[in-house]
Amino acid sequence: MSFRKLFSSSSLSLSSSTSINEDNHTTSSNNIKSVQSHRSFLRQKDSSSSISSSPSSSTLNNHNNNNNNNNNSPNRNYNNNNNNNSSYSNYSNSSSSANMNHNSTSMNSTNSTGKSQHHSLRRFFKKFKHRESPPATGSSTPSNNHSRALSAGRQGASNVNIFAKYGVPGKLLGTGASGSVNIITSESNPNEVYAVKKFRARLNNENELDYKNKVAHEYRISEYLNHENIIRTFELIRDSRHENVTDYYIVMEYCKYDFFNLVMSGLMETNEIYCYTKQIIRGVDYLHSNGLAHRDLKLDNCVVNSFGVLKIIDFGSSVHFRKEIPNGYYITENDIMLGPNTKLIPARGVVGSDPYLSPEVFEPQGLGYDPRGADVWSIAIIYCCMILKRFPWKLPKLSDPSYKSFAGPQLDGYNSLEYEGEDDLRHSHHPPVGPERLLRLLPVESRNVIKHMLILDPRKRYSMYDVMSDEFVQSIQNCTSGHSSSNHTHHLVTEDELNKINQERDKLKRLKDAGVA
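Structure tokens predicted for non-specific serine/threonine protein kinase:
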């Protein structure tokens, strides 16, 4: 089915009202622990509902008015906004620019000049300015048919009153440049809980077809995917109750726990981190095996259900990278062949959040880059964030001192990937330079795979097949929907729990400072 037909007047509905209440799973919950302690300093967001039965309007003003975080000064490429703490806020921000806060509460990183660099792990909120450059001719864009399977789809848009079908929206999970996400409970079955994204209204200067293509692009990709580490998408609803106004909604699986909050809680054990890492790897490997690259992998774009199963969200920046070629096709020197009858569709444009980006996305656009390698790089950065509770660098450019210390020797032609042994480090009078600067901070067993996932040359970097085949990754015990691993416990924390504990910690600190406690 073409993107245009997706928005035709024909009305198609979801074949069945599938319950996605995660508590209906039969897996054991012995390895799940709801915790009451943490090291996070996150703020409570506005819990008011943004989905209403009134005609659609842009949510940007409300999102901007909530921008009241005064504790951090903005960096050149970042905007302050640390109120929304739900990962679904990023699911509502597809194809927008990344924003980042930095402060001095993070672990220190010493650069080659001896100065302390701070790369605090902070949440990203994509707002007004698009991070993505205009795609060049021939690039994979939302209007392309990504594949026959994607263009066919399982169903089109249901032309119904979403409130009559699903009931009144509940808590606001997130608001962003492309819309807002709320919890919504089925009118007929209170055990069926969903996350519903309402797309923003079309902008005055926005072409109608481009707007519909953006909606269709995100829906078609997420609706096509079927993997336990990918968020499930159930339905696209077109609501035309109001004259001259059409609202679009995506109904998707609701997961209770925000992955960013879980990482920032400081409660994750090493094997728990390994479990989440392998789940992300499995999800991305599934995407790549289906010819799709995510291009915006980060902590904020993951959620976790009550059984410790991680789900990747937000496919607004994803692209199809595999193209079938006909017999007799003339293969040029610029073509990268993926198989006898398939070639690579290079990605173009700087898409994603700065600390997670791979260096090749900043290269002169020209022939573009392989988006698969960018995903591999981002997974390694996510792992480092979980271990270190900070970013290795702000931006993968030589203007960033920490990145320059990591990448400089490689660019100069040194074989710095063969990092020093412990004895060498013990007797060295100079701080390590090159990848060892980062790798020495990671668990020994994980260094080899991370080393190969962070190779600067994307042609030499590990593929997802290589990552999946790595001995360390193979050894990780990861939880699934029907199995809880025996070597770790998942410490699951809701935002409300974090806020309450933060208040208690702040109160205790004030009493201690006053000499009372």
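Residues 121 and 389 are 6 Å apart (CA to CA).
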